[in-house]
Amino acid sequence: MTADTISSQFEDDTLELQYTNTGDVVVFGSTSNLIVQGTGNSSIAGNVGIGTTSPDEKLDVSGTVNATGYSVGGTAGWSGTYNTGGGLDSYTKLLLHMDGLDEGQTFDDASASNHTITANGNAKTEDTQKKFGATSLYLDGTGDFLSVPDSSDWEFGTGDFTMDCWFYSLGTQPIHAGIMGQNNSTNTYQNMMQVADGNTLRWQCHAGIEIVAGVFSNNTWHHVAFVRNGDTATIYLDGFSVGTGTFTTTIGNIDSVFWIGNRNYGSGDGVFYGYIDEARVSKGVARWTSNFTPDTQAYGGGFSVTVNSGIITNVE
Fold first, then answer.
1. Burial class (CB in 10 A: 0-12, 13-18, 19+), 124
2. For the whole model, what pTM was predicted?
3. What does the pLDDT average to over 112-132?
4. Among the listed residues 163, 292, 170, the one whose alpha carbon sits nearest the alpha carbon of residue 228
C-alpha cells in the first residue's frame, strides 16, 4: 500500500492522511476538517452526526443546513416541500401500531388526533403473531373489538380518503365480519371495510355502494386498503387492485363509533377472528392510485423538508 501524501500538524491538532491507490482522499482531525473525496461510493455502517458528537439516527444534524448545491425533487435552487413518506403525516387521523404488553389491553393512537381507544371484551395485544413491533391486536371472534369515539375525522365528505391495515385471519370469517369502519346502530348508514362471506373482502357504504372482491387465505398476513380517489373506489389486497366501483356519495356524520374488528351488525355475526396490525385512517388523500408494494416497516419513520431557493428552512 502506498500513499501520495502523509502529513501531520500537531501544533493545531490536525492529522492529514491522503491515500490515492483507489482515488480516495481522507482527512482526519479532532478540531479541524474531515474531508472525503473521490469518484467511488462511500459507506458508513453507523450513525453520522453533523454538529453533534452523539448522533441518534443515521443522519443527525444540529444546526442550519445550507443546501445550495443539492438536488431534491428537481434542480439546484428548487423551492418547495419534500416529504420522505413514512406514512404518518397531517393526513393521518388514526394510527394504531397495536404495540403493548403481551396480553395487554392498552392501545394508543399515534396520530396527532390522539383518539381514545377502548378495548371491548377480551381484545388484547399478543406477541404470538405480529406484522411489526412487539405485538398485534388479537380478537377471538366472540365479542372482542376496539372502538374509537365518533369524530369529524371520519366525515370525509366528497374528498379522498384511505383506510388500510394488516390482518391475519385464523379461520373462515362470519358474514359481515368487520375489519374497520363505521356502522350505525340501525345498520342504515355505514362506511365499512369487512368480510363479505367466508374469506372475501367487502367494502360497503350507504346509498347502495358496495364492492365485493379479493379472496384471502388464512394463517398468513395480508395488507388491505380501501381507497377513494375522486369518484373511484378501489380495494387493494396485498398491493393489488382486486375491485373498483363508482363512488359519488358524501360521507357525513354517520353517528357511530369507529370500529376495528367489528361491524356492529346487531345479530352478533360481525366480529373478526384473528389478528390486526398497523391500522390507519387517512383523510384528504388517496394513498395509492395503482398497484403498489406494501410498506415493510411500521408507519411513522418519515419527515418533511421545506426548502426555499436551495436553503432548507424547516425539517419536521
1. buried
2. 0.70
3. 97
4. 163
pLDDT in tens, 44-69: 777 777 878 777 776 777 665 554 44
Co-location of 51 and 164 in the same domain = no
Domain count, the chain: 2
Grid cell at residue 37 = 473525496
**Under 8 Å between Cβ of 214 and 202:** no
Which CATH number do you get for residue 266? 2.60.120.200
How many whole angstroms separate alpha carbon 187 and alpha carbon 205?
A: 11
Q: Are strands 190-197 and 178-183 parallel, antiparallel or unpaired?
A: antiparallel
- Indicate if 42 and 100 belong to the same structural domain: no
Residues 70 and 187 both lie in one domain:
no
Residue 165 has pLDDT above 60, yes or no: yes
Is-contact 270 262, C-beta < 8 A? Answer: yes
For residue 112, being part of any structural domain is answered with yes
* Co-location of 243 and 211 in the same domain: yes
Nearest to 279 by CA among 162, 201, 197: 162
The C-alpha atoms of residue 188 and residue 45 are separated, in whole angstroms, by 56
Whether residue 111 sits in one domain with residue 22? no
User: What are the distances in angstroms from CA 234 to CA 193, 224, 316?
Assistant: 11, 11, 31
Angle at 47 between CA 44 and CA 53, to 5 degrees: 120
In terms of DSSP bridges, do strands 311-315 and 190-197 run parallel, antiparallel, or are they unpaired?
unpaired
- Which residue range forms the structural domain that includes residue 30? 5-82
- From the number of C-beta atoms within 10 Å of its C-beta (0-12, 13-18, 19+), residue 181 rates as buried
pLDDT at 300: 87
User: Span 93-99, mean pLDDT?
Assistant: 97
H-helix segments, the chain:
none
**81 three-class SS:** strand
